[in-house]
Amino acid sequence: MTSPSLPGFDAGAFVAATLAEDLGGRVSVEGDITAVAAIPAGATLSAVLAARQPLVPAGLWLVPRFFAALDPESRCEPLAEDGTPVAAGTALLRVSGNARALLAAERSALNTLQHLSGIATLTRAHVDAIAGTGATLLDTRKTLPGLRALEKYAVRMGGGTNHRMGLFDAPMVKDNHIAAAGSVRAAVAACKAAGLAGITVEVDRLDQIEEALAAGADRLLLDNMDVPTLRAAVALVAGRVPTEASGGVTLETIRAIAETGVTFISVGRLTQSAPAADIGMDYAP
């Protein structure tokens, strides 16, 4: 399976660390005391990883790495594709190899695949909910430590769009920046003097919009505004800069938010609160 390009993510190190966490600090089948005790060393196993609910797979390319780390001769056959929705009962991947190794790697592989597929599935639900409105769904920096590259990949597989990868790649002036700098104008002016472009400024009241635009904001983050206020904010901005709704967005409210005319909607829960997708590994002779 072809691995996607994820700058800053070391798949080998991630797989090794995840396995070691479950295997007593080492990447070895000897860490699975049950498998070593109950299964002959030369026994083989064939199994299928299957969806137990409708879902959008993400991370299938990582699964073979877990099994190969413990059994380099293991074989994995992909039966689905990341980003393509599947029905409950769909086989996602077939694996065969040393039984001890496959069982020792099973939970690490499933935890990763379930988590990423859960993000992709929740993202797709949000994308579908705003279809036809013209609004673009964005993720945020609300990710699990160490998993940002993977989680943002899963958002893309669900049809969402990545916003900032971190504090390093897009300037955003928020309320605490404004408080520390003294004013919106001072904060934005300092960012422009530093050569930063595409500056987003956070506002949470209508009376802050003109001040932010006068300061030179290239985009407005409309934070924690209700639907009527968002509609008024979009009308006030009148297309002068893109607008982004953020804060408290749910699957139940996102359609109404999108219909206010905002350009973007950022949703932290895509990565922060997505439930793991139900995926199992079952013996398949």
Overview of the structural elements:
The chain has 285 residues and is an alpha/beta fold. It has two domains: 11-126 and 274-283, Aldehyde Oxidoreductase, domain 3 (Alpha-Beta Complex); 128-272, TIM Barrel (Alpha-Beta Barrel). The protein is 39% helix and 16% strand. The protein has eleven helices and ten strands. The protein has a six-stranded parallel sheet. A four-stranded antiparallel sheet has the order 2-3-1-10, with helices on one face. Helix 10 links the parallel strand 8 (243-246) and strand 9. Helix 1 crosses helix 4. The protein is elongated. The mean pLDDT is 97.
Task: Provide tags for this entry.
10 strands; elongated; 11 helices; Aldehyde Oxidoreductase, domain 3; four-stranded antiparallel β-sheet; 2 domains; six-stranded parallel β-sheet; alpha/beta; TIM Barrel; 285 residues
Q: Which secondary structure elements does this structure contain, and how are they paired or packed?
A:
Layout lengths: L10 H12 L10 H6 L5 E8 L11 H8 L4 E4 L12 E8 H31 L6 E3 L9 H10 L14 E2 L1 H7 L2 H10 L6 E4 L5 H7 L3 E5 L3 H11 L5 E4 L7 H5 L5 E3 L2 H4 L6 E5 L2
Parallel strand pairs: 4-9, 5-6, 6-7, 7-8, 8-9
Antiparallel strand pairs: 1-3, 1-10, 2-3
Helix pairs in contact: 1-4, 3-4, 4-5, 6-7, 7-8
